[in-house]
Amino acid sequence: METAKLALGIAIFWPILVIPLFVLFKQKRAAKLILAIVKTVIPLLALLVLDYFYWNSQLVIELWKFSFSISKFSLAIASIISFSSFFIMFYNLGHKYTGNVPFDIFMCLLISSLIGGIFGNDLITTYIFLDLALFSGGYLIFSLKKSARIAYLYVFSNLIGSILILTSIVLYSSQTGSYLLQSINASGLLLFGFLVGLMIKAAIVPLHIWAPESYAKSPIPVAALLAGNTNALVLFTSFRILKLFSCQTFLQLFGAITLIYAAVLALSSSDLRKMAAYI
Asked: Cis (ω within 30 of 0) for the bond into 102?
C-alpha cells in the first residue's frame, strides 16, 4: 500500500514539484531542456510501477486531503495520457516556447492535473483537478498574444461549465451527505448542472463553439494536449458521473450527433489543428 501511495503521489504531483526548478534555472537552457523531459518521464515511470504491481487491484488512497482511487480502467487511461504527454513534450523541445518560465509552469500544472483528475475518487477531488487542467490550458492558449480573444472564450465557456458542475456537486452533497460517487434519484436541477456543465467542457454539439478555434489558435504542443489528453479526462469524468443518473440514451444520442457533425467538419477542414479538435 505504501508503494502504491508513493508511486501515485509521484505520478500526480511530480510535475508540480519541479516548478521551482524551472524558476531557479530560467537562465540555463540546457537545464530547462532536461527538466522538460524529466517532468513527464518520472510520472510515466511511476505509472508503470502501478501498472505492474496494482493492475488488478482496487485501491483508495488519501494524499494531502485528496482522495484517489486506483483501478484497471483508471490506470489504463492515465498511462495513455502519460505516454502521449511524454511524446508531446519531446516534440515541444524544439518549440519556440521552450524556456518560457510561465509557459513551463502552466504546462506542469496541466500535466499534473490530467493524471490527478483520472484518479479522483470523489467529486471534489475530480472537480479541482478537472478545472485546474482546463484553466491551465486557458493560460497556455493565451501565451500566443494573437489568440487572446480565443483564450477568453475558452475560459469563459469553461467557467460557465464549472459553475454548473459546482452547483450540482453542492446539491448532490446535500442529498447524499457525501461527495463519493453513488447512484441517486437526481432532481432536475442537479442533473441539468452536471449534464450541461460536462457537455460544455467536453465540447458536445451544440455546446462546442469554443473548442475548434481554441485548438486551432493555440501553440502546437498545447493543441495536442488539449485535443487529446484533456478531452480524454473530460470524457472519462463525464462517463463516471453521468452513468449514476441513468441517462445513457440521451448521451448516446448527443454523442452520435457530435460524432457525425465532427466527422463532416474534420473532412472539410484544411487546418490540421482544427481537424484534431473535431476528431
From this structure: no
Buried b (16+ CB within 10 A) or exposed e, 248-264: eeebeebbeebeeebee
Cβ atoms of 103 and 143 closer than 8 Å: yes
pTM: 0.83
Cell numbers placing 267:
473532412
pLDDT in tens, 183-238: 666 667 788 888 888 888 877 777 767 777 677 766 777 777 777 788 788 888 88
Which residue shows C-alpha cell 517532468? 39
Residues 6+ apart with CB under 8 A from 46: 7, 8, 10, 11, 14
Q: For strands 59-63 and 66-70, give the pairing.
A: antiparallel
| Interatomic CA distance for residues 91 and 93, integer angstroms | 5
Phi, psi (5° rounding) for residue 133? -65, -45
Instruction: Residue 212: name the closest of 152, 125, 166, 272 by CA.
Output: 272
Question: Is residue 99 within 8 Å of residue 46, measured between CB atoms?
Answer: no
In angstroms, the Cα distances linking 162 to 54, 115, 188 are 33, 19, 18
User: At which residue does the C-alpha cell 540546457 appear?
Assistant: 30
Output the DSSP codes for 77-98. HHHHHHHHHHHHHHHHTTSTTT
